[in-house]
């Protein structure tokens, strides 16, 4: 058993919430309080109603998510929104969210975790945004097929590829989540092979013209790592039970 | 006992929520659901924690307010915000909010109610804003002192006056709430005596230069009428108990 | 053989370019001129370099596309951009683009064509945007599985589904291309089952909470119909050869 | 007798006009010239017509104000505006205005002066805005009632209080004028008791929820200090007569 | 002798100030009052200090200008600005300004007056802007040289020409003042020969590429007509002396 | 003969394109590629069709311009735009553009070149904009007539003057091109005599009121220097033929 306040303070500091920039809708930190104590931590990518139901069923009193509840701004507490908050409050479950701080953290970050999985053993931060570096990059001497095989193993499913770059992947850039729209910026930054979660249709023909290999490895699939890595350390340090909620979107 | 859905549908239609414009932060309509039934309606100007506590103590399962919970945009459900929602959910109290629709309604509107109280027996809508008329006006053959006396009786307290206009009030304009900043527009529209709830310091010297009588009758004090008039009709029609929550700010 | 001017004039009028709204990057109409004559028309979804190469190889002197060359604003005529324009000019191939006018046209539109393919025999325009209706809707008495089967046959490949709505599809809305982000608006408009081309990851959990069936049938795959239907009529009327360029992105 | 140029140069430097930020409407500095000489200085909070009349009646040839003539942007020189400028020009009276530079000055500032009056003997600058600190703060070991008594004595009238914070005032923040809307920022900055001039109605329930004591001491009443303190030094240094114009708004 | 109020009311109505749109800096109407009576009207294009000096020297008590005093927003009343207002006030001279209302008036308008001078006997309004038509157009069967000769006679000086359009001027468009930047819009509207006052350097090569004759007849030179035509009628109706102030800029 | 890549790389570095700010429409650098080799360089101020025709006629395979092709954003490749690109591609002529980098370069810059021509032997950078200095200034002990004579000799034609400043020019500021609108900023910066290319009509009366000498030396005429100075060095270093294209606008 631990105090929610202590967990929040530790995570805020560990993830450096006060300094890492983000979109205003992310609203990183404690999004929903509870009565003050935590015994079990659940983790998930999205803060949707089915996820809340699974977390409550698992007996969690703290849910840690990557995508919080407020991306659409203030919303009426009715319908699914009402059910979600009511369910959490009735079961005394708090909700904590961390977005970009949990993408770029050197240890827990989605980028760092996925990089380790695919053998980027010497990845360097790159792609500046508001004073931080959003991605990781490394020169890799492997083939496009080998990289695809590693990625599919890491995310546990098929990876869509636009094979417009070199057969040997060369300078590889990695930004988890929905950063396909940055493909022009990648080419400008010298990236030859770009790994991200998802990208809109137009990013594919653009990658073709830019001559960049573009790997779409799944928005959900590339972002399960961070919350779990954080939970691993948190539960160990504070002696909490933990459970990863599986709720993929296929996107 | 009534169905919350029925009350909400009736109020939405009566107040014409789908057509009356408002500021985006107003978020008119059902802001917080409950389990579906309503026996007692509470009314208040503001949706603050002390108001929720008084409404719950009064046994209300529907709270109708003029200023809803979302003016500051999406907010973490922590601190007072957490307590407020938890208190309402635990006591199965829904919250409904109506702002400008409850200022300008010809029967329930704060404008219409206050106009009746001070003897504007033939008030006409004026001051266009996004396709509606925000205020009421009427030529009145009474003195400034008489108008002040009527206003102080209506709002139950002192009214601050900038006596820069004519001794006989002449063309009187009325907009409840915080519309003092419209004093220039009032002068441009031919208003000689302007009644509103509150105005910033700079509106006083501006009224002096414009030669307009400016009555500051209190933001809270001029906006208790609408929710109570609505509740009067609603509780009668649906056979509900009702209670007005008194929680003035002195502003 | 036909005059390019005549073809352009006929398409501009037929597609009502001067009145149908669009995003500024669409730049509908003749995007690249040629020396004035056309014998063969090629059609494609995207105006990318590989598409230009295929169109030139096919001997086309007019390429009609759905996504034109200027979505990214003014671009240097270097790299792929240079090659593309040079290739077209050297082979005297003009380029004509039509985006939303080719989505919403009652006969040639991507919406209308796909609706026919999946048995929406009485589809009605809906979803207003800048004075037009962006989609088609119809109540359908079929199951979700049946609709999926029809869609997969129509687009010639797998369709991703978020099955959060009713088993019987009910009120079906259809907007081809990348309109997944409109899922909230769909729910607000009473759509129970929403068919579009692509949507970002966050649209899936949102559809779950809204209780809407969401079919992601592919951005490319849902937008091959319009250019080909237009070309069918155009080539018949002006006695031109024609060829559909196949260049899918898998997105 | 002194040269207007010399007075303006001295005040501009003393108040550091070229570096202290402000709202664009403040237009700090010499707002209206005269023929070049000054014998008597008048001071006031607002640059309104009644104030000009009192200053001219007092024989001033320089009027120093806190709120200048241009907050509403360019205005026709007709009506009160015409009378004001004509009156000043006919009586050869110049007008000098300083807003935020006269709030934050360590010696002449409204903040510093009021802080001295209420016994903040060790006040520290706080609340950053565009590179400066807008307020003063200090931990105080007195009761809310004692603070109110000191404030009422300092401003010479009643002070409105929202007593939502601790009985012992603790960390006190002070920003003169109309800064009530910063109450959320005050709570975030650790202020337990916040003194300002005025705030809108909504600041009161917000202070209640934040648990902050909020003192509304009057916009006019908290801003008479600065112009008079400046005039005291200026008139001494340049051997000028001086007079404080009293023209309160009650706000 | 006439009342200033009467002159202003007559001009406001005649020029339809309440309905004709304009840029916010224009501030059409009475910009500076006087003591109430007018005997002599001066007219000028610009409201600059040398113009005020000439108008005062001419004994005017009302100056009518096309470009008023507030285009740069609120300005300190110091330097030239102080001298200008002081000079006018000391000599009891009012200032009235009308910009677009005095460009587009069918009788007094700069457009209409210049059109008459160059033989556009059947000019039609065209070029919509905020609900009005900004220019006049007419098909003319004369040569470019003939048009230039007429223009140079009308404005009393040389006219700069970009002779990129047809030798016979064809469809001629006319917008007085600084509207050269609309040359693309002119071509889009079918204008073959465009007459305006001034245009920036880039408008010349653009006109060359568009194949439009572009006549730069001078901003000042094309805008002396309106104020004088207005003054002609005004002085006749109200029995006032009048004088046109000549103060060209050569631009 | 030289490689286009080498020329572009050398110019980009020499002109510091990656660091010098500009308007987004300038799009400095290689705007149109060719097949890779360059023998002859043409230079011009504007990238218009007549200029392209003259450059092709001169046998150039690289055209260097000051005002590039993209100021109006993305444009259809039809009409003059089509002809221009077709002409260049058919004749294998590349186009390189540099705007502000070619105004402010200490050696090749339009400012530096014109300063040398008129005897500003000790000109200092001034007038900060986005981290660079846009102009050159120097105190000069010569008369206004002498400066005008030097300028007219340098630009090879008449210079329009607003002689509102001192007879001895004093502090002279120089910004080539269309910077007349900065005359207020010049006065604020202590410039007594301001030389630029062009300014709108309103800059003249403003200069009069500010008491600044304003020389309008021609936008085209003040900007022929930079491209030619660059070409001089480039052609020498890479052993290329060169030719200056003369195509003035008179503006």
From TrEMBL, chains A, B, C, D, E, F:
<dbReference type="InterPro" id="IPR036069">
    <property type="entry name" value="DUF34/NIF3_sf"/>
</dbReference>
<comment type="subunit">
    <text>Homohexamer.</text>
</comment>
<feature type="binding site">
    <location>
        <position position="103"/>
    </location>
    <ligand>
        <name>a divalent metal cation</name>
    </ligand>
</feature>
<feature type="binding site">
    <location>
        <position position="223"/>
    </location>
    <ligand>
        <name>a divalent metal cation</name>
    </ligand>
</feature>
<feature type="binding site">
    <location>
        <position position="67"/>
    </location>
    <ligand>
        <name>a divalent metal cation</name>
    </ligand>
</feature>
<feature type="binding site">
    <location>
        <position position="66"/>
    </location>
    <ligand>
        <name>a divalent metal cation</name>
    </ligand>
</feature>
<feature type="binding site">
    <location>
        <position position="219"/>
    </location>
    <ligand>
        <name>a divalent metal cation</name>
    </ligand>
</feature>
<keyword id="KW-0479">Metal-binding</keyword>
<comment type="similarity">
    <text>Belongs to the GTP cyclohydrolase I type 2/NIF3 family.</text>
</comment>
<dbReference type="GO" id="GO:0046872">
    <property type="term" value="F:metal ion binding"/>
</dbReference>
<protein>
    <recommendedName>
        <fullName>GTP cyclohydrolase 1 type 2 homolog</fullName>
    </recommendedName>
</protein>
<dbReference type="Pfam" id="PF01784">
    <property type="entry name" value="DUF34_NIF3"/>
</dbReference>
<dbReference type="GO" id="GO:0005737">
    <property type="term" value="C:cytoplasm"/>
</dbReference>
<dbReference type="InterPro" id="IPR002678">
    <property type="entry name" value="DUF34/NIF3"/>
</dbReference>
């Amino acid at each position: 058993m631990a105090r929610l306040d202590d967990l929040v303070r530790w995570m805020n500091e560990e993830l450096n919430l006060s300094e890492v920039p983000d979109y205003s809708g992310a609203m990183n930190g404690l999004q929903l309080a509870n009565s003050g104590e935590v015994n079990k931590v659940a983790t998930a990518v999205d803060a949707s109603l089915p996820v809340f139901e699974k977390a409550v069923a698992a007996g969690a009193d703290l849910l840690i998510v990557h995508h919080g509840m407020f991306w659409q701004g203030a919303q009426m507490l009715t319908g699914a929104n009402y059910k979600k908050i009511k369910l959490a409050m009735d079961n005394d479950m708090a909700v904590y969210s961390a977005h970009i701080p949990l993408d770029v953290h050197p240890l827990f970050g989605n980028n760092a975790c996925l990089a380790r999985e695919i053998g980027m053993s010497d990845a360097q931060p790159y792609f500046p945004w508001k004073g931080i570096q959003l991605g990781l990059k490394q020169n890799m001497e492997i083939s496009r097929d080998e990289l695809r095989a590693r990625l599919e193993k890491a995310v546990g499913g098929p990876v869509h590829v636009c094979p417009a770059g070199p057969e040997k992947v060369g300078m590889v850039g990695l930004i988890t989540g929905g950063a396909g729209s940055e493909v022009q910026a990648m080419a400008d930054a010298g990236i030859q092979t770009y790994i991200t979660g998802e990208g809109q249709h137009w990013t594919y023909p653009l990658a073709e013209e830019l001559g960049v290999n573009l790997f779409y490895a799944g928005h959900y699939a590339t972002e399960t790592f961070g919350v779990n890595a954080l939970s691993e350390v948190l539960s160990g340090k504070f002696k909490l039970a933990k459970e990863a909620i599986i709720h993929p979107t296929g996107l």
